[in-house]
Design brief:
This protein is mainly α and 187 residues long. Helix content is 64%, strand content 7%.
Length: 187
């Protein structure tokens, strides 16, 4: 199977998990927006740490600086992507019970394509759900819930599982969705 980690790479990752926490604490400001919460950064940072372990060549220097660069760059890419998505302000309509019911995505410009981008993401995710099953399907559903403002903890409670499982589902779905034609249309 392609991209399998060796035992040495797994050990390298396990022994350096603290680097993910350190990079997040020292270099990333967390706003607790959907997909910008600590749990999300940690899951994304762990993925980056694994990629760093797979790319590491001991003859080229120590692992920690390489890993920190991988983690930081991956987190910054994620923040940039989310900031682009969140350049649309969410204005909730409040019903009689003071409950948020509908989000009206209002873009920064009058361009109609920009205004419907947020809905297009949800539509594309809905189409993708029909293609997947198992963990990937749960991951797509979890991403949808995150985009609606739910925290990873809430999603875990909804599914009767742990936060780590939900993060794993999201990571699996994210890796499948990045190559999905429905999601590629949004770029």
């Amino acid at each position: 199977m392609k991209n399998m980690m060796t035992e040495y790479q797994r050990e390298l990752t396990t022994n350096n998990l603290h680097l993910v926490k350190e990079v997040i604490q020292k270099r990333i400001k967390i706003n607790n927006l959907p997909l910008l919460a600590y749990e999300d950064f940690y899951a994304i940072g762990c993925e980056a740490l694994c990629r760093a372990a797979m790319a590491y060549q001991p003859s080229r220097g120590e692992f920690a600086p390489l890993a920190c660069r991988y983690i930081y760059n991956t987190l910054i890419d994620h923040v940039r992507h989310q900031n682009y998505f969140h350049s649309f302000s969410a204005s909730p309509f409040i019903d009689d019970d003071d409950e948020r019911t509908i989000y009206d995505l209002i873009g920064a410009t009058d361009d109609m394509d920009d205004k419907i981008y947020g809905n297009s993401v949800m539509d594309a995710l809905g189409k993708c759900k029909a293609k997947y099953s198992g963990i990937t399907l749960k991951g797509v559903e979890a991403i949808e819930l995150k985009l609606l403002g739910h925290e990873t903890r809430e999603i875990a409670e909804r599914y009767g599982t742990t936060v780590n499982n939900v993060n794993a589902w999201i990571a699996r779905a994210r890796s499948k969705l990045k190559d999905d034609p429905e999601m590629s249309k949004l770029k």
